[in-house]
Design goal:
The radius of gyration is 19 Å and the shape is globular. Helix 2 packs parallel to helix 15. The model has no long low-confidence stretch (mean pLDDT 98). By secondary structure, the chain is of the alpha/beta class. Helix 5 links the parallel strand 4 and strand 5. It folds into 2 domains: 228 residues, Alpha-Beta Barrel (TIM Barrel); 81 residues, no CATH class. It is built from 15 helices and 11 strands. The chain starts with a helix and ends in a 6-residue tail after the last helix. Helices cover 44% and strands 15% of the residues. Bound molecules: flavin mononucleotide.
Length: 325
Amino acid sequence: MIHTAICDLLGIEHPIVLGGMGGGYTQSSMVAAVSNAGGLGTLGCHGRDGDQIAKDAADIRSATNQPFALNFLLFATDEEAFGAAIETRPAVLSYAWPKGDQDIQPYVRRAHDAGARVTYMAGSVAEARRGADAGADIIVAQGSEGGGHVSWMASLVLTPLIVDAVAPIPVLAAGGIADGRGLAAALALGADGVLLGTRFLASDESPLHDNFKQAIVASDGHDTALSEIPDLATGTVWPGAMSRSGRNRLIERWSGREWELRQNQAEVLAGIVAARRAGDIEEAPLSYGQDAGLIDAVSPAGDIVRQIASDAEQILSERLPGLVQ
Ligand SMILES: Cc1cc2nc3c(=O)[nH]c(=O)nc-3n(C[C@H](O)[C@H](O)[C@H](O)COP(=O)(O)O)c2cc1C
């Protein structure tokens, strides 16, 4: 079995974490399934109010007695939701994307005061140092291959850069990782585990419409684009990121015409909401990473955790030792 510092720090069996995908991309059954399989499930709290977070945490607890995390996008976190999350006493609070001038230390301190560990996601070395300086227990090095909002550096380079920059703080590698090869590679780069988003979007417990899950399965990984189009449509100003999503009709239509999209924002958003509901994979943003090319089936989230752990173990214990003469 693969055992790293992160397993001890978070009280988990496998160093595999579900990315806390907010905006309705994670739900309690998905979180519990990952935690029950020995990984760390994370609920994305962005878009949920305090009552909903309290209910979700209770639902997770009724389905597992294992640790789980609650995730916040710091630039958009309101006190009512965050306070309710702290009240639920999660094992881990997971943070990402503060504004450039935002003080993140109070969020770290309040998590620690509530007995929680803190993970902090960074897409650059400077951002990783910021999280480390604020007292985060784990830094997530998020490479630009990943789905949703990402920075500019690929995981293969960013992970060891951040490992060196924040040592001895342990690092989770994220972005472009969807199988045991990715976990084995991340460990070789100096990370102590991995955090996955896209792979779990194509799970039985994912709240996505089945058409979206099948679009991930069908993707060869070459069909994504970085754009501001999903954010312009929702009127969100994201601090320092574009968003990676499938290059569908919606993205093709507005690429290069962002000014016009801003002009028609309400109408475009209404179309997206309707398309999402109808499972129309061409007219709603499909936030997935390049690792969609590595995903060929929708599977139970627990099986995904177990398969990645056992495949990585096999690579580390059988294939790689045989290469050393
Ligand atoms: C649809 C979607 C929504 C996301 N929302 C969040 C979020 O609310 N908070 C966060 O910390 N990360 C969020 N992420 C990023 C993931 O936590 C993770 O870093 C990323 O998915 C890793 O790359 P991968 O998709 O290749 O696994 C999101 C990712 C996706 C695909």
